[in-house]
Amino acid sequence: MMDYAAILTILVITTFSGSAGALALKKGMNDLPQLSLKLVLRNGWIYLGSFLYILSAVTNIVLLKFLDYSIAFPMTSLTYVWTVIISYFIFKEKLSIRKVLAVILIIIGVFIISQ
After folding, report:
1. Which of 25, 27, 32, 67 could be a cystine partner for 72, CB 3.0 to 4.6 Å?
2. How many domains does the chain have?
3. Is the pLDDT of residue 15 over 70?
4. Calpha distance 17→26 (Å, rounded)
């Protein structure tokens, strides 16, 4: 059995890379003057986002090897926490009280389900 620190590390990699991947894809699409396959294939952000999504999927598969599905899957909701944090700093999106409360509830929920 894998130790707790290793599982936690894989969880962080899974959730952070999934969130960062989505945000990189968003950045790449925002940079395009128009939607065309040629422009998409020339955009480095699209490649970075795709790589991070694949990394997230692979580490999620590893996580499923060591945790019950009923625990592992709800823990991936931490991706939403990373998304709120990263989008605040990168895209300068506003943090409302509702978003902050939602993040706190997700963290509490993950903690409860992991016990």
Report:
1. 67
2. 1
3. yes
4. 14
Instruction: Measure the CA–CA gap between 103 and 115, rounded to whole angstroms.
Output: 19
Q: Tokens 């940079």: give the residue.
A: 31
Q: What is the pLDDT of residues 73-111, one digit of tens each?
A: 888 888 999 999 988 998 888 999 999 999 999 999 988
In angstroms, the CA 9 to CA 4 distance is 9
Token pair 């692979």 in the structure block, residue: 58
Domain housing 45: 4-114
Helix (H, G, I), strand (E, B) or coil at 76: coil
| Residue 33 structure tokens | 């003057």
- Of 94, 87, 76, 95, give the one whose Cα is nearest residue 26: 87
- 36: number of Cβ within 10 Å: 10
